[in-house]
Amino acid sequence: MDTKVKNHSHALLPLVVILFSIITLTVSLFLIVDSQSGILDDSLDDDDTARVEFYNISIKAGDNLTKIFKAVGLEEKDVFLLQELGKDGRALQNLKPMQGISISVDTEAKKCLNLSLWLSNEKKLEFIWKDDHYETVVTKQPLKTSLNYASVKVKNSLLEDAITSGISKNLVYQVTEALGWEIDFIKDLRAGDEFELLFKQSYLPGKGFVNDELEELLYTNKKGTLKATKFENSMGLSAFYLPDGQRLSRDFLSSPLKYNRISSPYSISRKHPLLGITRPHHGVDLTAKYGSPIWSTGQGRVVFVGTKSGYGKTVVIQHNYKYKTIYAHMSRFAKDIHKGSKVKQGQVIGYVGTTGITTGPHLHYEFRINNKPVNPMTVKIPRSPSLAKKEIPSFESLLEKNEGIRIQIKHAREED
Ligand SMILES: [Zn+2]
């Protein structure tokens, strides 16, 4: 299939932003997920008739232990006892959104008998009331995982159709991220295109579903099928690869900001709008709202940050010995951008402005190869390095294994 470099990956951003907002919104909607009450046996309390209630709570932004205790009918004195327990107590002072807590409450004594805080998906910190104080225990519970398969044919939008097919939003997000350089999800998808996904589902016994992780995808359109497989190399780094071992991702993003339009393209000779003289335009001018964030298109090191006459406030990033990108006319620089600082791909380095010689707010963006300017919108950016030769055998056996599992699950479903 066609795997040419596309020039409009910014069109993908709104989709990703929407996905994120939906996920965040869903999470923040529930505080108390589940509560049950019952009579416990006397191992927890000497009084056989003690009423004990259990609460499972998902932390949301702004929650603290005092607030939670109030919501489950507990008094503040236990908050102090718990939070004073050194390092373990500090974990309760710094609750993080999406963390899970479960609490057993003696409703007569208004006493917290047991509090479990999930430090991670697999690690639980438990506070147990013993006579006159709390004791803490950390337990690790390994995740249970299973491979699963799902397919979806595009009818309306990938997200909508995927959800109808029972595929999680998180998994759709991983698909759009993996194929970001290959497909423009707004422009290229057609009704009838099909996605087949092999993914790992993680469960925590007693806590339920934890996560979906994309392992392999097949995207089929009229032109053919693109297959991408996640593989962890011997260094422990995992990425998606095509069947021939080529890596799916690129070292550069196709755009340094969410822009409205190209106000001035790259050209070898153009008449300067303000200076009136003909000279080359070594970059592209991308208009955007004053103050819009600008991000580094690749990982690298800042080699210049400051004012360059006509360029105004400018950042120059060296990506390796060969590639350099230049960002000009900024209104201001991001806080942690200094000469010599390391930047990650997608890290915000500054904000759109009008410094230097400009007719309005825009970003002047240059891409240089061996210090020679090239057109940033059409430059053929190579794929990130392919798999090393020594990794190929284990990659090929993974491809075979995935194929086997996919066929097995498909057959099992057809027989149903
Ligand atoms: Zn320019």
Explain the overall architecture.
The chain folds into three domains: 50-140, Nuclear Transport Factor 2, Chain: A, CATH 3.10.450.350; 144-241, Nuclear Transport Factor 2, Chain: A (Roll); 261-374, Glucose Permease (Domain IIA) (Distorted Sandwich). Helix 1 (12-29) packs antiparallel against helix 6. It is built from seven helices and 23 strands. The strands form four sheets. Strands 12, 15, 16, 17, 18, 19, 20, 21, 22 and 23 form a ten-stranded antiparallel beta sheet that branches. It has 416 residues and is α+β, with helices and mostly antiparallel strands. Strand 17 and strand 18 (312-318) form a beta hairpin.
Précis, in short:
The protein is α+β, with helices and mostly antiparallel strands and 416 residues long. It is 19% helix and 38% strand.
Strand elements, count = 23
For the report, how would you describe the main beta sheet?
10 strands, antiparallel
Distance between the termini: 33 Å
Low-confidence stretches: 1-49
Radius of gyration, in angstroms, nearest whole number: 27 Å
Q: Approximately what portion of the residues adopt beta-strand conformation?
A: 35-45%
Number of domains: 3
Helicity, in percent?
Answer: 10-25%
- H-E string: HEEHHHEEEEEHHEEEEEEEEEEEEEEEEH
Task: Look at the structure and give the CATH class of the largest domain.
Answer: Mainly Beta
Question: Which labels suit this protein?
Answer:
single chain, Glucose Permease (Domain IIA), alpha+beta, Nuclear Transport Factor 2, Chain: A, 23 strands, disordered N terminus, 416 residues, 7 helices, binds zinc ion, ten-stranded antiparallel β-sheet, 19% helix, 3 domains, six-stranded antiparallel β-sheet, globular
